[in-house]
Design brief:
The complex is a heterodimer.
Chain A: H1 2-70, H2 75-90, E1 107-116, E2 124-127, E3 134-141, E4 146-156, E5 166-176, E6 182-186, E7 210-212, E8 218-222, E9 233-245, E10 250-256, E11 267-270, E12 280-283, E13 301-307, E14 315-319, E15 322-327, E16 331-341, E17 347-355, E18 366-374, E19 385-396, E20 402-409, E21 419-424, E22 474-483, E23 488-496, E24 511-515, E25 518-519, E26 525-530, E27 539-547, E28 556-563, E29 569-576
Parallel strand pairs in A: 2-4
Antiparallel strand pairs in A: 1-2, 1-21, 3-20, 4-19, 5-18, 5-20, 5-21, 6-15, 7-14, 8-13, 9-12, 9-14, 9-15, 10-11, 10-13, 16-17, 16-19, 22-23, 23-27, 24-25, 24-28, 26-27, 28-29
Helix pairs in contact in A: 1-2
Chain B: H1 2-33, H2 40-60, H3 64-69, H4 73-83, E1 88-96, E2 108-110, H5 113-118, E3 123-129, E4 145-153
Antiparallel strand pairs in B: 1-2, 1-4, 3-4
The chains are: A mainly beta, B alpha+beta.
Chain lengths: 578, 154
């Protein structure tokens, strides 16, 4: 009977042992599982976040590089939207959602397009995108001085409440047509030097002759009295002669453009034995780079020389005229009128007239530019337009010539298109497409010359069917120092990703410090944000100074607990031995 | 007699409770000092972490995009070989967004291909690069590549 009772007790003990073993096994399994999910899975997500963050920076770089060549302000927004979609596909199953927040102010470039606006009158459109057509020319004659209209352009200001002050730069793709050439044939009226007989008989073709019977005798003529307008382009300079000889002599013809110091290569010609009564022209265009000044009476002169062929006879010179061919281009530049236009086509306010002067037009198409200091303009009606009227301002008229402004030509590089740069429309960057906006330095803006930028990705969120990890907080004690005299313990702490939402701006009450298991009250420690080149990468450094009791001495078992704004707790421990 | 039996039963229960505590603490004590080998379950995660770090470092140094977009397959192979531990074999496949293999003509790998076929613990890392900006030489459009890096211990 006693044995039976003892056997029942043993069974209970065996059963209890089995239960205990099961509990311990389950505990170990649970611990392993929790540790795995707590650390290993999060690591995977953190790596993806790093990848996406770095990739986002690269997207912005690429977009800015593209912007400098295309001037397409939508490039950045488009690429970031694409990036948001593509990372979702690339990390399928992780539930990646790339989002950001912030505001942006971007300077715009408005390009002149050939499409017209739906308001009364002919108004072309300004668009914040590069040329997208084969282009067209706007033109006007230069036959009279003053400002001649080339075209009116408008940009709808919907969604824009103000346009802040900034220096706008206008680029004009402009030129004028080639101008018909003119010529002037003049005779001399002076004989600066020479040994010929009756040299003044060479002034005109009147069958009275300047003569020489001496080999190598020279006769100079001057004062041709050309009245070529300054600014004219000299196309051709020719010296003519009407001469004959009794035998076989030749004549040498040349000219000088610096009052006889330098002479062109002499042209030698055989002569008829009677007056031909026609002028033979010798081209000296290539002798020098001709200017109006070189043709002045002070500088220009011609020379005739008798050249013997055998026994010298007489050389007769009837006249020695000079013919100059030149073109006088119009003097003109581009400028604009700027105003705010109502939707009914009437002017709400004239902002500026005849501003943003370009350089002078030439016969070759050039991209000229001018600037205008735009004053701040506020309280914009959402149906109003910004109106820019392009003019050619002719200061020297030229009949038969035309000034041109090229617009909307997609064969031209973006930098050569007719456009207006550095306009700030604050609300443009605020558009939120597909839930994605990005924050960048609103002072820098975009410009072709300087594409620097500051990208501040405030958060990268990952949400999915398993986890939601907006940010991850981790801490690490990387250094401690004990001051035995002051009884002060310094703890240097690196906090991961503290700057990301929602873990922002940790305060003293987020920290709990335990020394040898005893919590240090807030009055006994100070918290200082610091910097460490070695440990700062992606982290924020805090230094904690704990004042301990006079009797306290190492070793200290130090434990720091940080609670972030979401209530997530992380801990770090270390042992201070000295 | 009845009272004595009751006391005996209570003692059994106390013995049982004490036994449970003794066994539990014995396990806990041993567990605290035991250095158990790493479970193969964690091996993949470890390799994934290494792989991500290597790719991220190369990208951070602006090397990864250069290797990929300029098709410098020898350089990327060398870089991965140097950056990864010697006993880790890799096989890198680069896709564009149409799921076309960009490096189909030149496999990028290190190690015995048999290991990839036979190992049951292959880590696979996905890494995305959006494009390669060569400004001011000339800008490049947004054109992502997806890198699949497979790692296995040799």
């Amino acid at each position: 009977m006693r044995i039976m009772k003892q056997k029942r007790g043993q069974f209970i003990i065996i059963a209890a042992l089995i239960v205990a073993i099961m509990m311990v096994s389950i505990s170990i399994t649970m611990y392993g599982a929790i540790t795995y999910f707590k650390h290993e899975r999060w690591e995977e997500y953190l790596a993806i976040i790093d990848n996406i963050k770095l990739g986002s920076y690269r997207v912005v770089e690429i977009s800015l590089a593209n912007y400098t060549s295309t001037l397409n302000n939508e490039t950045l927004r488009y690429n970031l939207n694409q990036w948001a979609n593509d990372v979702k596909r690339a990390y399928a199953g992780f539930g990646v959602i790339l989002s950001g927040s912030g505001t942006a102010t971007v300077s715009q470039t408005l390009c002149a397009h050939q499409e017209t606006a739906p308001i009364s009158g002919t108004y072309y459109l300004l668009k914040n995108q590069s040329a997208d057509a084969s282009g067209t020319n706007l033109s006007n004659s230069t036959e009279s001085t003053g400002r001649q209209l080339l075209g009116k352009f408008v940009y709808l200001l919907t969604g824009i409440t103000s346009i802040p002050a900034n220096t706008w730069r206008f680029y004009y793709r402009a030129w004028h047509s080639t101008v018909p050439a003119e010529n002037s044939t003049n005779s001399p009226s002076s004989t600066p030097a020479g040994t010929w007989t009756n040299p003044t008989y060479g002034y005109s073709s009147d069958d009275l002759y300047a003569t020489t019977s001496t080999d190598d005798a020279k006769q100079q003529y001057g004062n041709y009295s050309f009245n070529v307008p300054s600014g004219a382009t000299i196309n051709k300079v020719e010296v003519g002669f009407e001469a004959y000889t009794d035998e076989n002599e030749e004549i040498g013809i040349t000219c000088s453009w610096d009052n006889g110091t330098t002479w062109a290569t002499e042209y030698k010609s055989g002569l008829p034995k009677s007056d031909p009564n026609t002028v033979t022209w010798v081209d000296f265009t290539t002798a020098t780079n001709w200017t109006v000044d070189k043709l002045s009476d002070a500088n220009f002169r011609t020379q005739a020389k008798g050249i013997a062929k055998g026994k010298m006879s007489t050389v007769y010179l009837d006249c020695i005229p000079v013919r100059v061919t030149y073109t006088v281009p119009p003097s003109a530049h581009m400028d604009v009128d700027i105003s705010i236009l109502k939707s009914d086509g009437t002017i709400r306010q004239t902002i500026a007239t005849g501003v943003a002067d370009s350089g002078a037009l030439t016969a070759t198409a050039q991209t000229l530019s001018g600037t205008y200091s735009w004053p701040s303009y506020t309280d914009i009606n959402p149906t109003d337009y910004l109106e820019i009227d392009y003019y050619v301002h002719v200061t020297t008229a030229k009949a038969g010539a035309t000034a041109y402004l090229r617009i909307d030509d997609n064969t031209l590089p973006a930098a050569d298109q007719t456009r207006i740069a550095n306009i700030i429309f604050p609300s443009e960057g605020d558009k939120d497409e597909a839930g994605l906006t990005i924050e960048w330095d609103n002072q820098q803006g975009f410009s072709a010359a300087n594409a620097a930028f500051i990208l501040n990705i405030t958060s990268v969120g990952l949400s999915g069917y398993r986890f939601f990890i907006p940010v991850f907080l981790g801490i690490n004690i990387f250094e401690t120092a004990w001051d035995n005299n002051q009884k002060e313990l310094k703890i240097s702490l690196a906090v991961d990703r503290e700057g990301a939402i929602p873990v922002t701006d940790l305060k003293k009450n987020n920290f709990s410090i335990y020394i040898n298991g005893t919590k240090i009250i807030e009055d006994d420690f100070t918290l200082v944000r610091s910097y460490s080149e070695k440990y700062d990468s992606g982290r924020f450094i805090y230094e904690i100074y704990c004042t301990l009791k006079p009797s306290d001495n190492p070793p200290f078992d130090v434990s720091v607990k940080v609670v972030d704004t979401r209530g997530i707790i992380v801990k770090a421990k270390t042992l201070v031995t000295k | 007699m009845r009272k004595a039996r009751n006391i005996s039963g209570q003692m059994r229960i106390i013995e049982v409770i004490l036994s449970i505590f003794v066994i539990f603490f014995a396990f806990a004590f041993v567990n605290a000092f035991a250095v158990t080998p790493l479970s193969p379950m964690y091996e993949t995660s470890e390799l994934e972490r290494i792989g991500h770090n290597v790719l991220h470092d190369l990208d951070d140094q602006r090397l990864l995009a250069r290797f990929v977009y300029r098709r410098e397959w020898a350089n990327i192979t060398a870089a991965l070989t140097v950056a990864l531990p010697p006993d880790v074999y890799f096989n890198l496949t680069i896709y564009n967004l149409n799921n076309t293999v960009v490096n189909a003509d030149t496999p990028i790998y290190y190690g015995d291909p048999k290991v990839f076929a036979e190992s049951s613990h292959i880590a696979s890392i996905t890494y995305v690069i959006p494009g390669y900006s060569r400004y001011p030489d000339y800008p490049t459009s947004y054109d992502p590549r997806i890198l699949i890096l497979q790692l296995v211990r040799g």
